[in-house]
Every structure is written in structure tokens, then in C-alpha cells.
Amino acid sequence: MNLSIRAISAICGVFLGCCSGVVFLELLVKLDPGAGNLITGAQFAFIALEGFIFTSKFGLAQRVISLRDYGLLVAMFFLTSVCNNYVFKFNVPMTLHMIIRGGSLISNMCLGTLILKRSYRLSQYISVLMISVGIFVCTYFSSPDLVGKRENLDNGAETDTFWWLLGVALLVLALFVSSYMGITQELLYRRHGKCAREALYYTHLLPLPAFLLMHDDIRTHWLLAFAGESYQLPLLGVAVPLILLYLLGNVLAQHLCISSVYTLTTECSSLTVTLILTLRKFISLVFSIMYFRNPFTWWHWLGTALVFVGTLMFANVIRVPKWKNQAVKRE
User: Fold this and answer.
1) Between the CA of residue 306 and those of 136, 299, 309, 316, what are the distances in Å?
2) How far apart are the two ends of the chain, measured CA to CA in Å?
3) What is the largest CA-CA distance in the chain?
């Protein structure tokens, strides 16, 4: 497989940006589990600002896709981002968070069949079953791992379980919304050509006013950041809130991650992109378990293996033997 320098750079950006972003996100969640809206808002604002300067050329560049076409895309992207970061308030462990989001192939397959009327190979149906079982195993055996407490929550295991289930439901909703967003992007690119940088910019710029609805929550956690632990910068000798340092690291890593993914979709086949993102998720998962010492039993390993192998089978990296097909041909 011959890859261009641009593609190789994008692959490096995916691994470096996405994996480091997960580290900073875990550090943030450990200090403030309810900071999801603050994190999402900071990511959107930074990427929109960067896009306004370098993609939009301070509003002077002409759009390829109309704002009307971006409307549904932006709404879905905003909902997905908010859900994915907000669920930490409901006691969802980072490992389970990554495993459920790693099941995007299942939702893509379901929506591709229903909306685009696509057909799939037998190996892909088998892989969907493996991934589904893997996610179920990890979800079931993560349910007792309700570490910490939701803000302002002071009653019993049953209440904890309810909020945990609500968090899982939000993740599954975000999974299918994200898949539908991918189909919408594909249809837009068919009509207008690939314009990844423009899509990246507008999907982060247009939802910004919606964060005004969350300004109380964002302001609360912004003030909590200043009231929390500080870190003394070695050279400057200035004390900076530790949460803000982690937030800056997460925002920069997220920008590198998502811009690299958008670039990769224009340089490589969907098979290559799927494989790279699957490997990235698997590496992030293993690193999170090892570095942060998250609860992870052999059941979790079994579920993760099923998700990982099933994803590779779906991408046709691992192939199912076609003995029956060969026998039919010989007859």
C-alpha cells in the first residue's frame, strides 16, 4: 500500500492527537466529572477560530456547500459532541465510553442498509454479531464499576445504576446520530466534492450560539477550575489552574485529531481509514487501562477482543473462508 506524505502525516496526527486527547480528557474527568460542556465549548471555539483564520480567510473565502445544507449536519454534530462529553456526569467509565464509541461500524451498517439500501458480505454480518456481543459483555461487566458520585447525588446504588444506564443510553444515541451524520456528509460530498476543511470549520462555527444555553453550567465549572489545584509553571513562575492546563492540552489534541481524520478521508480508502481509527481506539483503550489503572477484568478483555477482531473482519482485514462458495463453483 503506497501512501503519500500527506496521508502518512495524517495517520501520525490521528494517533498522536486522538490518543493524547483521551489522556487529557481522562485527567480532566478525574478532577471535574461535570466539565463536559466546558470541554466541548472550548473545543468548538478553538477549532472555529482556527478555521475562521486559515479556512474562511477571515470570512472572505467562498463556501462550496451552502449554509442550508450544513444545518442538519451541524445539529447532529453538536448533539453528538455534547452527549459524548456530558455522559461522564453519569458515572460512565472512560473504558466503557471508548468501547461503545468503537461500535460505530454496527450503527453505520444498520443505517446504510435502511437509508442507502446497501448489501453486505457474510463476514460483515458475523463481525456485527461479534461487535454486538463484545459491547454487551463490556457494558454488563462495567455496570458495578460506578466510581465516584454524580454531582449533587447522595442516595443509593439503585439511583447510581439509573444514572449509569442513562449515560449509556446517551452514548448509544450519539453513536447512531454520528453514523447518520456520516451518511449525510457522504451525500453532501457526492454533490459538492470533498471539502473537508470547510466542513470541519462550519460544523464547529455554527453550533457556537447553542452554548449560550449552557452558559450557567460552563461558568460554574470555569470558576471551579480556578478554585481547584494549581500548577506552578517552571520558567514563568506563575500558578495556573491545573484543570485549565489539561483543558488546553485536550483542545489542542482534539484539533490535531479531528483535522487529521478529515484529511485522512481525502487521502485514503475507507478501508484504510477504518483500520487506522480502529487501531487508534484500541491503543487508547489499552493505554487508559494501564496508565490510569481502571477496573478491567478478563471479561472486559474478552469483550474488547471481540470488538477489535470483529471490526477488522468487517473491514475485510480478517477474511472468513469461503469453503461453501468454492464447493458450489466446483459442482
Assistant:
1) 10, 11, 5, 15
2) 36
3) 81
Which residues pair with residue 192 across a beta bridge?
none
DSSP for residue 212? G
Which pLDDT tens digits describe the chain residue by residue (331 residues)?
Answer: 567 888 889 999 999 999 899 889 989 988 998 898 999 999 999 999 999 999 999 999 999 998 888 888 888 888 888 888 788 888 777 767 777 876 777 777 788 788 878 777 788 788 878 877 887 787 677 655 444 444 444 455 555 788 888 888 999 999 899 888 878 877 787 788 878 899 899 989 998 998 999 999 999 999 999 999 999 988 888 899 999 999 999 999 999 999 998 888 777 766 567 667 777 877 776 777 677 676 778 887 898 888 888 877 876 777 777 654 444 444 3
Please name the residue ranges forming H helices in 87-156.
Answer: 94-101, 104-115, 122-142
Q: What is the pTM of this model?
A: 0.75
Q: Which H/E stretch holds residue 232?
A: strand 230-232
Q: CA neighbours within 13 Å on the CB side: how many for 170?
A: 21
Phi, psi of 230 (to 5 degrees): -115, 160
295, 92 contact by CB (below 8 A): no
Q: How far apart are CA 25 and CA 142, in angstroms?
A: 19
Q: Are 36 and 217 in contact (CB under 8 A)?
A: no
Backbone φ and ψ for 232, nearest 5 degrees, come out as -85, 115
Cβ(310)–Cβ(145) below 8 Å: no
Residues whose CB is less than 8 angstroms from the CB of residue 189 and which lie 6 or more positions away in sequence, other chains included = 195
- CA–CA separation, 2 and 64 (whole Å): 30
Question: Which residue reads 462529553 in cell numbers?
Answer: 85
